[in-house]
Structure formats: structure tokens, C-alpha cells
Amino acid sequence: KIVVVGSTNVDKVLNVPKYALPGETLAIDSYQQAHGGGKGANQAITAARSGAVTTFITKLGNDEDGQAMVAGFARDQINVDHLVTTDQAQTGQAYITVYQSGQNSIYVYGGANMELTAADVNAQADVIAQADRVIAQLEIPLPAILAAFRIAKQHGVQTILNPAPARELPAELLRLTDVITPNETEAQTLTGIEVTDEVSMLDNAMAFFSLGITMVIITVGAKGAFYATPQAHGFIPAFKVKAIDTTAAGDTFIGALATQLDLDNHNIEDAMLYANRASSLTVQTAGAQNSIPTRDQIVAANQK
Ligand code: ADP
């Protein structure tokens, strides 16, 4: 049983030929209205598609975007009974411009996500207390994450923090974290140690262990991912695939890993391989939530 506490965004994607300079008007090639996105939602969807019993705690506006997102969560069999809505802000939105080169620029309107309070989370204490793991990211206010992790720790629920987007964090939040899953930039932001090779990844892990964290996963894009516990560590290379759009790669990795840790009797290497395969499928399709694979697709890709 997994509870995800995090953000929901509606992604509005513009396919553009080049950067528009201030004051310039440009005709664009195409746009895609309203794909589902947001780190929290992406991770919840990954967990659900991999077969975890998944509850998502997130805050939405009372608007059409919010309703469309809820309908999508329900189609993915996510428990939507613990969602919260607000009249104070609209559902979060990300405006993504994708250039012909494949690079992108993203503007995020946090909206309702930024209204998620500790009180909102405390009102969902029962479902958190009954979970096996709770996962959070940094696209919602810190007091909401702290509230979730405090409840989790009181009830022996494992806490997984995906410290994205990169920012410094209060000591209490790191103390409440069991598993941390940064990418290279996020790891360096928190430890001050640059990620270059496996030795520097282990140095990062040691820095996190000294804070009481017991499992460290560092994802390094097309190179793969590193794991460390106080007992063991290793590097799992990424699968060699033709990446089209890496949006949600990290989210897929984390949602899949958490699910496998749940179902796989905590065998971390097997869980890493599963997560690696899952995210290698996500990068081969454009978009965020539409590119996240199901367990059947991941298993089938492993048998090829
Ligand atoms: P984030 O998007 O959070 O920075 P990463 O870019 O580190 O996350 O990617 C997360 C995981 O997705 C990687 O550890 C890897 O398993 C997989 N991945 C990312 N990019 C590729 C790629 N080009 N080819 C294959 N797998 C990839």
C-alpha cells in the first residue's frame, strides 16, 4: 500500500520552432492541450500501473482541469477519496515549450498545489498510518510534507522523499526520511558533493546516512542509477534505448521502485532493474502520464 502526497499539474505543451524574444510574436507548429503531469501525479500513476494499491493526496482547483485529472486518476484505479479541492486557486499548470531541437522551457503555475496545508494532510492521517510507504516530492509546501512524514514515522510507515525540484531542506524533514531519491543536481544541492563517478555517489550516500537516511538512490539519466544502503551499494546501467522525451523519467523510476520494494520482498537490485526498465519505456514516448508503462508492458519489455 502506497500513499503519494504531491502535486498535480495540467501540462500545456507548445511545439515551437525557436525561442520567442521579448516583444516578438511567433507562429507555432502545434500545441497539445491538457496532458496530465506534476511529479506527485506521475509517481502515483506509475505505482498504480505497476499494481500497487495507491492513494493520492493532492490539492486541485474546483475547475475543469481538476475534474479531468480526477477522472484520469480513477481510470488508473488510484484511490481518489483523499483528494482535497480549493476555491482559492486553480489546478496547477505547467506551460512547456518544446523546441525543434528537443530542448524545452517550462513555466509552472503551482496554483492549488501551493495551497496544500499541514491541516489538509493531518485530516488524512488514517490512510497514511495504514500505508506501507509514503512518497513525497517538493512541488508542494514543506509543512504538508512534514505533516505526512511525521504521521508516517509515528506509525512505522516507510518515508520516501524525492527531493525534486532541487532546493535546500530543513533538517527535520531529512531526519524523517528513510529513503531519498535525488538526481545528480538534487544530490549536490543537499550534500554539497558533486556527482561525477561512483565514488562521489558513495560519498553522497554517506552524507545522507549520517543524517539517518537508510537508503539512497541517485538517478543519473541515460547513464542509469546508483543505490546504497549501509549494507550494500551498486550501479545499475540504464537500458540503451532511443529517447524521444525524458519528461517523467525520474517520476517513473521512483513510482516503479517504490512499488517493487513493496511487492518484491525488498530486494533492492531487482527493484532497481524493474524501475530502470519502466523508465526506459517512458523516455521512448512523448508526454508525461501517457508515456508511463503498466506492469504488463514492463514485464513484456524484459522478455524481449
Ligand atoms: P530526472 O528526470 O528526475 O532527472 P533522470 O534523468 O535521472 O531523472 O532519469 C531517471 C531514470 O530514467 C534513469 O535513472 C534511467 O533509469 C532512466 N532514463 C532516463 N533517461 C534515459 C535514457 N535516455 N535512456 C534510458 N533510460 C533513461
Automatic annotation (TrEMBL):
<feature type="binding site">
    <location>
        <begin position="38"/>
        <end position="42"/>
    </location>
    <ligand>
        <name>substrate</name>
    </ligand>
</feature>
<keyword id="KW-0413">Isomerase</keyword>
<comment type="function">
    <text>Catalyzes the phosphorylation of ribose at O-5 in a reaction requiring ATP and magnesium. The resulting D-ribose-5-phosphate can then be used either for sythesis of nucleotides, histidine, and tryptophan, or as a component of the pentose phosphate pathway.</text>
</comment>
<feature type="binding site">
    <location>
        <position position="287"/>
    </location>
    <ligand>
        <name>K(+)</name>
    </ligand>
</feature>
<keyword id="KW-0963">Cytoplasm</keyword>
<protein>
    <recommendedName>
        <fullName>Ribokinase</fullName>
        <ecNumber>2.7.1.15</ecNumber>
    </recommendedName>
</protein>
<feature type="binding site">
    <location>
        <position position="247"/>
    </location>
    <ligand>
        <name>K(+)</name>
    </ligand>
</feature>
<feature type="binding site">
    <location>
        <position position="183"/>
    </location>
    <ligand>
        <name>ATP</name>
    </ligand>
</feature>
<feature type="binding site">
    <location>
        <position position="139"/>
    </location>
    <ligand>
        <name>substrate</name>
    </ligand>
</feature>
<keyword id="KW-0067">ATP-binding</keyword>
<keyword id="KW-0418">Kinase</keyword>
<keyword id="KW-0547">Nucleotide-binding</keyword>
<feature type="active site" description="Proton acceptor">
    <location>
        <position position="251"/>
    </location>
</feature>
<comment type="similarity">
    <text>Belongs to the carbohydrate kinase pfkB family.</text>
</comment>
<feature type="domain" description="Carbohydrate kinase PfkB">
    <location>
        <begin position="1"/>
        <end position="295"/>
    </location>
</feature>
<keyword id="KW-0479">Metal-binding</keyword>
<dbReference type="GO" id="GO:0004747">
    <property type="term" value="F:ribokinase activity"/>
</dbReference>
<keyword id="KW-0808">Transferase</keyword>
<feature type="binding site">
    <location>
        <position position="276"/>
    </location>
    <ligand>
        <name>ATP</name>
    </ligand>
</feature>
<feature type="binding site">
    <location>
        <position position="285"/>
    </location>
    <ligand>
        <name>K(+)</name>
    </ligand>
</feature>
<feature type="binding site">
    <location>
        <begin position="219"/>
        <end position="224"/>
    </location>
    <ligand>
        <name>ATP</name>
    </ligand>
</feature>
<feature type="binding site">
    <location>
        <begin position="250"/>
        <end position="251"/>
    </location>
    <ligand>
        <name>ATP</name>
    </ligand>
</feature>
<keyword id="KW-0119">Carbohydrate metabolism</keyword>
<feature type="binding site">
    <location>
        <begin position="9"/>
        <end position="11"/>
    </location>
    <ligand>
        <name>substrate</name>
    </ligand>
</feature>
<feature type="binding site">
    <location>
        <position position="291"/>
    </location>
    <ligand>
        <name>K(+)</name>
    </ligand>
</feature>
<comment type="subunit">
    <text>Homodimer.</text>
</comment>
<keyword id="KW-0630">Potassium</keyword>
<comment type="pathway">
    <text>Carbohydrate metabolism; D-ribose degradation; D-ribose 5-phosphate from beta-D-ribopyranose: step 2/2.</text>
</comment>
<feature type="binding site">
    <location>
        <position position="251"/>
    </location>
    <ligand>
        <name>substrate</name>
    </ligand>
</feature>
<comment type="similarity">
    <text>Belongs to the carbohydrate kinase PfkB family. Ribokinase subfamily.</text>
</comment>
<feature type="binding site">
    <location>
        <position position="245"/>
    </location>
    <ligand>
        <name>K(+)</name>
    </ligand>
</feature>
<feature type="binding site">
    <location>
        <position position="282"/>
    </location>
    <ligand>
        <name>K(+)</name>
    </ligand>
</feature>
<keyword id="KW-0460">Magnesium</keyword>
